[in-house]
């Protein structure tokens, strides 16, 4: 188990390295010069050279990349912006703020949106799927299956404003979505984020309903489930202890894959409800050709996904004893 | 507490009969293609402490008929007719809760493939113990001790430590032993073994069969052994039931049926068995043709399209009218050939090839 874990962490580090390098070099494939943007409209060539030098952009690309990479572990001095302590992801070209602290500031927003949505997806989607499987072929199954098809065909930016209009504006049931730190006011945090959670989870929930239903139906036909029934286990025990245990593996697998999509969905959700999260940073960074910010956001996103995938792998081993050997 | 005494109630109005009695059992599945007649008016008895071997090709209704005893079919798509009596209790149509109490306690089942039939997610100790806890109300501690005892009884070395292992950590033969331990944990009166040795290699097969025999002698368990291997039947069974297309076509004591088989299909089954001492270049003789579709079973004798001796029966009885088992008891078979004809054909043509 320990060796498995160490192997996964090393693998994750390699993945992050590759992602950051690809982002870095791809950025320079775009024909836009950040130095020129700093220089202003009227820009004498010698100024441009100076800015280039100060940004460190007069060095070979590879060296620049190494500097950037080194900054994460040791911090670095940037002539243009001043010193930057480790972990240093540089300064934003657009707003001049340190990238790392900008991300740290926004992180709780994105985390809240994503985690809340994940909870809704897993609890609501999986439970309705299990009910559908339990009621296989009966009215409740048909209702759950049909509504999941409808849910799966909806879009965040369509459902979002619609829900706000009905629930907030017309009925006044919930306040307009915004971010309130959990540490300040947990109840406020909850009620203000409820609509974004529902909206972000709606597509996924539907998928999880369908998937849970189909894997449960599959599991219920397994030999070992039949054995459990032949032993006299009650239908509830068979359903919850045997079939559900087997169904967890595909669900956890798909959830691991969906994490990236969920993060992408969080960005759209943040935009839909003007929540100031990492999504907003990412969109702005792209619009402004803001390399340090773009790199920082990409790296943090990748980091989150890689870490969560390790968690998923550990979960595997917890669920399925056959995985524990490797 | 009332429930416990209720299970051991003395024989009711039916009076003392055979331990297990299956009467005119029919099982039909509705599928998208139509109704499958999986079992058609099957009857047999099983005495306490004896073994009945049910033989037949795949799809002949061997497993389906025994799953009915346990009530394991999905009632939504299955139509079951006839009666199954376990001592004085009718099991067909019994309430679900009553069947749950019976399963694993008085009637237990061993399945063919011990790898897929054991839960990969739970330790063998837990899987054995939970049956015991459910039916005997034992504590976790007692259930674990019982599991260890059972593992020891079926011959698993180091039972004390292996009890916490998962099925994938056992070899095929050991896994089947676990399966047997699980089935026997509550000392059932009836054990249904559905091809218990098919997935195992021959040496392990012999060990498992000996184990079953030994346990039967010790505890007086009745066993229904489903197999397509006549060698297994010869080795373990007291009575044999040969099934074809969901029907019994020959049944009787194991010696009579295997020494003087009467039904052409049984001849075919025996003829298709390989022998170690026969000439290697001699090809095996399979039963020609394929088993009939159970969606539209052929009229008359279900075996007639594949039967080599149809022209010896006068008229078109084979094609039109279903032969019943005769005589009423003892060694009987469902074929229109006269007993003299059967003897003559078997002694003259079949015996030499076996």
What are the key terms here?
heterodimer, A: 326 residues, mainly alpha, two-stranded antiparallel ribbon, 12 helices, 74% helix, 2% strand, globular, B: 354 residues, alpha/beta, seven-stranded mixed beta sheet, four-stranded antiparallel beta sheet, 14 helices, 11 strands, 35% helix
Describe this structure in words.
The complex is a heterodimer of chains A (326) and B (354). Chain A starts with a helix and ends in a 7-residue tail after the last helix. In chain A, helix 10 runs antiparallel to helix 12 and helix 11 packs antiparallel against helix 12. Chain A has a two-stranded antiparallel ribbon with strand order 1-2. In chain A, 74% of the residues lie in helices and 2% in strands. Chain A is mostly helical and 326 residues long. In chain A, a hairpin with a 3-residue loop joins strand 1 and strand 2. Chain B is of the alpha/beta class. In chain B, the strands form two sheets. In chain B, strands 6-7-8-3-9-10-11 form a seven-stranded mixed beta sheet, sandwiched between helices. Chain B has a four-stranded antiparallel beta sheet with strand order 2-1-4-5, with helices on one face. In chain B, helix 5 packs parallel to helix 8, helix 6 crosses helix 8 and helix 8 packs parallel to helix 9. The longest helix of chain B is centred in the middle third of the chain and has 18 residues. Chain B is globular, with a radius of gyration of 21 Å. The chains are: A mainly alpha (326), B alpha/beta (354). At the A-B interface, helix 9 and helix 10 of A face helix 3 and helix 5 of B.
